[in-house]
Amino acid sequence: MTMARDIMHEGAQWIPRTETLDRAAQLMLRLDVGSLPVADPNERLCGIITDRDIVTKCVALGHDPAKVTAGDLCEGTPRWIDAEADIGDVLQEMREHRIRRLPVIDHKRLVGMISEADLARHLSDEQIAAFAESVYAASR
User: Fold this and answer.
1) In this structure, which topology does domain 4-139 adopt according to CATH?
2) Which residue among 70, 112, 132, 138 is least crowded, i.e. fewest CB within 10 A of its CB?
């Protein structure tokens, strides 16, 4: 049985909700990622921000990314998956919520992220096609 732990990208890092977006962008650049999980002071997931969020919800609106925090951009209930979850549960979570990145949690700690690229490396062409159709087709 393939689990979330088996397909995740290890080494994901939190960013505190109080961190500014310019610092978030610098960390994304250094880690070569397009998203960061956002944590509260108790290191609990409170959201995810993406490079696109920084551009469309801050810069494009004329806000200063040195003054806007990661927590300011977090919206809704953050989604995550347990490291021991089956790949079917991973796909269901991502399809149901139409998300492209999923934090992986083990014993209340962030241990990795699952992205579309991770899925592509571990699923059959048919599974990838079904995932893409369910996530993208409905978003038109």
Assistant:
1) CBS-domain (3.10.580)
2) 138
